[in-house]
Amino acid sequence: MPKVNVYNMKGEVVEEIELDSNIFGVEVNTYCMHAAVVNNLANKRQGTHSTLVKSEVSGGGKKPYRQKGTGRARQGSTRSAQWIHGGIVFGPKPRDYSYTIPKKVKRLAIKSSLTSKANDGDIIVLDTLGFEGIKTKNMVEVLRNLGVSDGRTNGSALVVIPEKDINVVKSASNIKGVDTAYVNTINVYDILRHGKFIVTKDALSKISEVYA
């Protein structure tokens, strides 16, 4: 089983724990991760783009010129697709891009992405994470203590907490490159696009329960 250090909010090592090999020690499946990322991005699409077809463009009711004798191709409307300001052929229309992937594929993709983070040494485990109030500087200080931030620029990190904590979520909301998530809302896209995967011990236990 892979082992990682557990840090406190000051960046001090307090203990060492073993990660669940069923979650953080599987064979990485790039196909499943790719399928999950594409699915996540597709489900985020609004699908509100729309173009006008010939019948929806105003005007064009009059035949532009007579059928024969001009030497030009026959035309019935200035709103045909070949005309400037004409309609669009096969243009995008509002649609739903979302779809589902098999649960087994999604679960394996989560495990593969977490294993990938563990293999790269990008998992940081915290014993606890909590603030008395909403202060961005509190989260910045924690990130600096953990080596994610150097004080001038913030690194990229996904902070996973076991349950809703407004103080933590809002303290991190203004930090560029840092996002928060709950155990039941993590996805492969967010895990892979962030540099570090910061998780509390309680959240780590829940991850083992949910995705085992």
Describe the structure.
There is one protein chain. This protein is α/β, with parallel strands linked by helices and 212 residues long. It has 2 domains: 3-45 and 100-211, Ribosomal Protein L4, Chain: A (3-Layer(aba) Sandwich); 47-96, no CATH class. 33% of the residues lie in helices and 14% in strands. It has 7 helices and 6 strands. The chain has helices spanning 21-24, 30-44, 103-119, 136-145, 166-172, 188-193, 201-211; strands spanning 3-7, 13-18, 123-126, 157-161, 178-182, 196-200. Helix 2 packs across helix 3 and helix 4 (136-145) packs across helix 5 (166-172). The radius of gyration is 26 Å and the shape is elongated. The two termini are 15 Å apart. The mean pLDDT is 92.
| Rg calculated over all Cα atoms | 26 Å
Which second-level CATH architecture of the largest domain applies?
3-Layer(aba) Sandwich
Please describe the biggest sheet, giving its number of strands, its sense, and whether it closes into a barrel.
6 strands, mixed
State the strand order across the main sheet.
2-1-3-6-4-5
What is the string of helix and strand elements?
EEHHHEHEHEHEH
| Anisotropy-based shape | elongated
Estimated helix fraction: 25-40%
The count of domains is 2
Q: Count the DSSP helices.
A: 7
List the defining traits of the structure above.
alpha/beta; 6 strands; six-stranded mixed beta sheet; 2 domains; Ribosomal Protein L4, Chain: A; elongated; 212 residues; 7 helices
Brief summary:
By secondary structure, the protein is an alpha/beta fold.
